[in-house]
Structure formats: structure tokens, C-alpha cells
Design goal:
- The protein is α/β, with parallel strands linked by helices.
- The chain has three domains: 116 residues, 3-Layer(aba) Sandwich (Cobalt-precorrin-4 Transmethylase, domain 1); 112 residues, Tetrapyrrole methylase, C-terminal domain (Methyltransferase, Cobalt-precorrin-4 Transmethylase, Domain 2), CATH 3.30.950.10; 49 residues.
- The chain contains eleven helices and ten strands.
- A five-stranded parallel sheet has the order 3-2-4-1-5, with helices on both faces. A five-stranded mixed sheet has the order 6-7-10-8-9.
- It starts with 20 loop residues before the first strand and ends with a helix.
- The structure holds S-adenosylmethionine (SAM).
- S-adenosylmethionine binds next to helix 5, strand 7 and strand 10.
- The site of S-adenosylmethionine has 23 residues, from helix 5, strand 7 and strand 10.
Length: 298
């Protein structure tokens, strides 16, 4: 290893726990041995731990052989809890933020707390470790030089449609998270919106039943018609090879383009506006086309 890039093992100063600091501590995504020595040190030495689920974190601490004051911090209490956590840090305490698994702030609570700390000039430091997205990307066999993290596509239909439209044009490898009960729907929607593409499905990463399936969307859809999805999944999707050939609406008539937006939940006039904007023409041109075609259908 090049001595100038080798990790410095003699960093006791850097590893000292400081007051008035937030530590983002990555925890394992399925294999306890992935918890770093530094993560354990921080968890054992901070004044308190903010945890997504205090029961999970209490279990982890009990395996490690110590306990700590815990405060819950999750999606639905983050506003008021965030303020309480900040007040304690501002008064001089040190705090570790952990989520149920992996790196805080990656599809997990944390982003808001870090932003608030930045606004109030509170030091934040990260204790790196597991992240399901990066673990899956490295295993995918797909281009990893440039990639996009899409996280969960979400359950709101119009938002999903919008994301899928954007993914259809995405040239970079895309990483998605998905829950097992939504996997089949997501694979089918991806196939419909993007056409066939290479995909790697990474299941139960770092666990005993870790599985990496390198296939394409058609293969994945067919496979999961026969096998029930089980466990946690990261999907790594190849980018489009023909992004230059146009946009998702190239093959749509003006009416189909408007309908596409209406199906995604827009009111008629908003759908006309969105169509005009995407086609780079004025709203009145699209409206006139809409009226002409609607009359034809009468
Ligand atoms: N912050 C976490 C991280 O750093 O990866 C992600 C948390 S997100 C709420 C949970 C999602 O991550 C799961 O639905 C799944 O898509 C993915 N995930 C977490 N652990 C995993 C594992 N062991 N194998 C595969 N996917 C996993």
C-alpha cells in the first residue's frame, strides 16, 4: 500500500470523543462482525445515542456489553426530537445517531438532523461502515464509475410514474431499494417504463443467505412469478444505452402525451401545460391540438 494513502492507524486524537458533536454511526446491515472498532468506541463513549428504534439499539448495545441513555429519533417524531437532541448537543453533550441498519441519512432518518447541525455550526462527523447501496453496487457487475442512488421509488402513483419516466432516460447505473412485498410490482413497472435492461438483484446482503442475481428485467419478472420474494433487496439497474435517441414522449402523440400526465394525476389544464413545457411549445398550441382531437372523437 502506498504509505501516503494508507490509513493512519495512529489517530488517537481523531478518535477522541468531543463535546458538542454529532456522530453518525453506521451499523451492520445483517452481519454483526461488520461493526467497526471505531463505531463501538463512539457508541460506548458518547453521552447519549439517538436511535431510529431504541429497542433494536438496546439489543445491539447489550450484545456489545454496555448500555447508554437512548432517545428515539424517527420519521414521525424527528421535528420535535431533533430540537431536543440539538439542545442537548448545544449544551455540550456528544451524541451518536444510529438507524436500524446501515448508514444514517441514506434512506433513513438523519438528513434533517445533519442540516440543523450545519445551520447551527455544530460539528458533525461520520463513522463510515455498511451501506446496502454501495455493497450492492460493488457486487452488481454493472458500470460503477458513475451511478445514481434512487432509494425507494415510493408508493405515490404519480410520483412513481415521474421517477420511472426519469429513469427511462438515465444513462448511469441506478441503485434502488425495495421491500419484498413490492418487489414484483416494481420489477413489472420498471420493465414497462424502461424496456428490457440488465439488472442485478442483491438479496440479504452480508447475511447467511446472501444472494446476487445478475439477469435482466424480463428474467427477473419471470423468476419472481415463480418464486416469492424474501428478505431485503437492493436493485442495481443498468443505465440506458440510447439516451441520445430522444425522450420518453418521442413516440407519443400530443394527445397521448397529455393522457400520460393525466394518468399520473394531473388535472387536464396542468397536463396540457406540462406537455407544452416538455415539448418546448406554447400552451395554446397544445390546447388547440387537444380541442381539435377532442372534437374529432365526438
Ligand atoms: N441506511 C441503510 C443503508 O445504509 O443501506 C438503508 C436503510 S433503508 C430504510 C432499508 C433498505 O435498505 C431495505 O429496504 C433494503 O432495500 C436495503 N437493505 C438494507 N439491508 C439490506 C441487506 N442486508 N440486503 C439487501 N438490502 C438491504
Amino acid at each position: 500500500m502506498n504509505p501516503t494513502t494508507a490509513p493512519d492507524m495512529q489517530v488517537p486524537e481523531k478518535n477522541k470523543i468531543l463535546p458538542r458533536t454529532l456522530y453518525l454511526v453506521a451499523t451492520p446491515i445483517g452481519n454483526l462482525a461488520d461493526l467497526s472498532e471505531r463505531a463501538i468506541k463512539v457508541l460506548s463513549e458518547v453521552d447519549f445515542i439517538a436511535a431510529e428504534d431504541t429497542r433494536n439499539t438496546a439489543k445491539l448495545l447489550s450484545i456489545l456489553g454496555f448500555s447508554k441513555p437512548l432517545i428515539s429519533y424517527f420519521e414521525h417524531n424527528k421535528k420535535e426530537r431533533g430540537e431536543q437532541i440539538l439542545a442537548r448537543i448545544e449544551s455540550g453533550e456528544s451524541c451518536a445517531l444510529v438507524t436500524d441498519a446501515g448508514t444514517p441519512a441514506i434512506s433513513d432518518p438523519g438528513e434533517d438532523l445533519v442540516r440543523l447541525c450545519a445551520e447551527r455550526k455544530i460539528t458533525v462527523t461520520s463513522i463510515p461502515g455498511c451501506c446496502a447501496a454501495i455493497t450492492a453496487l460493488t457486487l452488481s457487475g454493472l458500470a460503477s464509475g458513475k451511478f445514481v442512488f434512487e432509494g425507494f421509488l415510493g408508493t405515490n402513483n404519480s410520483e412513481r410514474k415521474k421517477r420511472l419516466d426519469l429513469l427511462a432516460r438515465e444513462e448511469r447505473t441506478t441503485i434502488l431499494y425495495e421491500a419484498p412485498h413490492r418487489l414484483c410490482t416494481t420489477l413489472e413497472e420498471l420493465l414497462k417504463a424502461l424496456g428490457n435492461r440488465r439488472i442485478t438483484l442483491c438479496r440479504e446482503l452480508t447475511k447467511l443467505n446472501e444472494e446476487v442475481m445478475r439477469t435482466d428485467l424480463e428474467g427477473a419478472v419471470a423468476y419472481y412469478k415463480e418464486h416469492a420474494p424474501r428478505g431485503e433487496y437492493v436493485l442495481v439497474l443498468d443505465g440506458t444505452k440510447d439516451a441520445d435517441s430522444g425522450t420518453y414522449w418521442d413516440q407519443l402523440s400530443v394527445m397521448e402525451h397529455i393522457e400520460h400526465h393525466m394518468e399520473a394525476g394531473l388535472e387536464r389544464m396542468d397536463a396540457i401545460k406540462a406537455t407544452a413545457k416538455e415539448r418546448g411549445v406554447s400552451k395554446s398550441v397544445i390546447y388547440a391540438e387537444f380541442v381539435k382531437n377532442s372534437k374529432k372523437d365526438e
